[in-house]
Amino acid sequence: MCPRQATLAPPQLCSLMGLTSEKTTTKTNQERNSRVVKSREKSRHFSEKAQPPRVLLLYGTDGYRPSHEIKTFLESHRIPHRTTSLVKGQLLLGEKTNSSSYSQHLGEISILIIVSHFQASLVEPYLELCRARHLSLVWAVLPYPHSQTPKPHFSRLHASSVAPDAIVGMTLSPRYPFFYGRPGATGGGIPHGKNWTTFSLETSGDSHVTNPGSHVTNSGPLPVGDLNAANAWSNMGDGEPGTKNGTNGYRVLVEVRVKTGETDFTDVPVVLEDMGGRDGVRKIVMGAPVRFWLSHLMLLESVHQLSDGRLVREGRERMVMVDIDDIFLAPEGRRMRVDDVQAVLRAQAKLRQMVPGFTFNAGFVGGYYNSGALMEEKLGNQELVRNAEQLWWFDHTYKHHQPHSMSPRQLRTSMELNRQFAKDHGIPALVHHYAVSPHHSGVYPVHPPLYDSWRQIWNVSVTSTEEYPDLRPDHMRRGFKHRGISVLPRQTCRLFTHTFLYSHFPGGRNQLVSLAAGGEVFLTLLRTPVSIFMTHTPNYCCDRLALTLFPALFKFTSRWTQLQLSYPGPLAMADRYFSLYPEDTSPLWTSPCSNKRHREILPAWFNCSQLPQLLILGPQKSGTTALHTFLSLHPQVQTNRQSELHYEEVQFFSDDTLYQRGIQWYMEQFPYPPSPSVPPTNSSLPSSPPPPPTLLFEKSATYFVHPQAPQRAKAVLPQAQLVVILADPSHRAYSWYQHQRAHSDPTAVRFSFSEVIRASPSSPPHLSSLSHHCLTPGHYHQHISHWLEYYDHSQLLLIDGDELVERPAAVMDQLLEFLRLPFHPFQNILQYDSRKGFYCVVESNRRKKCLGKSKGRSYPPMTDEDQQWLSSYYAPHNAQLKELLTRLGRTPPRWLI
Ligand SMILES: Nc1ncnc2c1ncn2[C@@H]1O[C@H](COP(=O)(O)OS(=O)(=O)O)[C@@H](OP(=O)(O)O)[C@H]1O
């Protein structure tokens, strides 16, 4: 155990004191806790935590990688979900006796997705659970390992393994009521990869699983016929939900054509729906490799079908925009010539047949117009301008300078020059209210002068970036709104400034086409309702790679899916994005300091050491002002400037209006810390030691209970140390009530403390609201747990509120140790003042300076009845707190013992 003075200290303090046995246990706890926090945090960061989870993804030991793929699918479509192992899921779902614990763990689930081999023992236990809980099932069947023996049947279904090179074609059922897939779509050219699993109906005997090396399995006794005759569909049946007789109760979604001999082929189902006629569980069984695009399409289809469209938000509409950035700017030999420009216009006309309204979006840097050395390239520039009306145009600064490195005046000048250029050359650039910044600079991390100049000079209301919140993983890129401008996420299409010949593209032309034909670019389009692809001039000269990629993409999409492609322009795209995802409107600012790419596009004034390293979180009326005042006395510590709104508190993470102002505003609340002096390099003089680093901190007592503060703080200050003061919650509530009265809160003035704490939800709204705000901050367990979902508990120091009142110098020693700051003689600086009834600061003139009259107020003591009432009110919350502290290896505060 930690010694007395280390009450509520984090474990590393105990270990500093040489308590090694504690250290061992703590370390394990700490590691475990940190792992849990990290994984939770990952899934919660930018996740849809406001919605109840609806899909439960279950994986076995062999299914970890494929399940990761499915998790990416769920995340990219923002389908609310949880993930767990097959073993754990069975335990959780099986908790029939304790259904509240079931829903507490899992939320409301409607679909299970199982990733496993075709093994009845893995799936059968779930059938019972699905029946009992009215769940549907999607089963992604993994290919059999070579050595495995045939497996038992499942719903009279046999599985067979087929080597990928035996599959020569694939068809989507012409009869299945697809929402996303195109009925009857057919084609060959299935890429090699993992084995596939095909299905057949049992008539007798065991299922067959063939050696994948032999190309094709014995696909069971089901006769399959000509692909075009769609025999597989009719042989498997067109079962309606609940059908028991007449048909087999299956509907085939996809079949593949398998080579069985030199000239023989057979058509077998690879994705089918079991309508639940036999076991009452509606399920979709998929045998295509999980990484293959068909599986993504079928997963989307399955979740849509099984949830009657409730779990997929995007519908079928897909808006697509293709930017050509730097249209006049490229190295010699990589700019468009006249025939390239004409090819672009011809391609555009053709693409409009597949994507209504399709128009290339040209980003221009006027300062480079006609700057190429080759005459053909100058003519190419002129051809672009001659056809300006046929394209859409957007500002890309005049000289391609990065906005973050320009002063507001330079920025404005650059934009004005580009605007004048557009005017002089008849370029209709003001109409679309869209602009893009070179290298994403200034868009994210946000550089407010860029936003202001865009609005002022170009009337921009939409832009795009790949950088929010981060470049990777790309399916997690998001949009946000800032200073009246909608920032949309951009997608990657694998064409860069250096890809202008097929031979420069890894894998050549075939690889480029396969990106579009089911590869990464197709999946992006499938996942993203609003896709903005960035290309560059070199992609349209030379081998014109972009003019291969996009037609291939749209053709493939129209062939296999019913996605409705369109290009309605940036404004309509922004409207659609934010009406689909209103939760993205307000950004979650992330720390630019811990991200290499973001650091490279930070304005010069941005100083990562001007952000605080310590947050005193609260709660209100726990002694936070005293702690703030005392800590500010340390010579190596500085706090924020006084705010005109909240006095000594910044409240950035808990005040939505302030939070919107961005990190720059937050930084400006802190003094610029002294930079260490750099000794002259060639000097023979002994160098003076650098000044000690300054620790910046802020205290905002509103952070403790604010629902978004932990996530916001973690995203900006991942390494911050946190302090929470645990005062007796009953006293805290009484102090808070007195504070409200002192500030003439009409409800607090009108109602007594007894009435306030005893108010119920049926009391007048202003009374029950006051009661809620008075009592709930004292639910310490709940608020601390929330913070620990984001921060590791070693970053958190808990201070006993009574100790702070009675032995403030000891508390300060404890705090300095936690912060690894040098000793400061608080024992001499803090002295008890009998008039104030609290410790005060002894100033240099030896006079005591106490906290203001609003801290340490005089008011009558709480009545015994109220005290008792509160003790029993807080008893369960305090018990949970005690449990938590024990789990974390902390000593409880005195009032809790
Ligand atoms: N040294 C010292 N001087 C004065 N007051 C002290 C001190 N140490 C702790 N306290 C207790 O701090 C209570 C005020 O808490 P906060 O500063 O957190 O209040 S606030 O939320 O910032 O308004 C305040 O509550 P009240 O007594 O109700 O005024 C005090 O109980």
From TrEMBL:
Active site residues according to the UniProt entry: K621
Enzyme Commission numbers on file: 2.8.2.8
Heparan sulphate-N-deacetylase deacetylase domain ranges (all copies): 317-522
Binding-site residues, 3'-phosphoadenylyl sulfate: S735, Y839, K855, G856, R857, S858, Y859
Keywords per UniProt: Disulfide bond, Glycoprotein, Hydrolase, Multifunctional enzyme, Transferase
Chain intervals for the UniProt region annotation (Disordered): 23-45
Pathway membership: Glycan metabolism; heparin biosynthesis; Glycan metabolism; heparan sulfate biosynthesis
Start-end of Basic and acidic residues biased regions: 29-45
Gene Ontology MF term list: deacetylase activity; heparan sulfate N-sulfotransferase activity; hydrolase activity
Pfam (any one): HSNSD-CE
Disulfide bond entries: C840-C850
Gene Ontology terms: cellular component: Golgi membrane
Coiled coil (residue ranges): none
Keyword Glycoprotein: yes
Domain (Sulfotransferase): residue spans on this chain: 612-875
Family per similarity comment: Belongs to the sulfotransferase 1 family. NDST subfamily.
Protein name, entry field: [heparan sulfate]-glucosamine N-sulfotransferase
Organism per entry: Geodia barretti (Barrett's horny sponge)
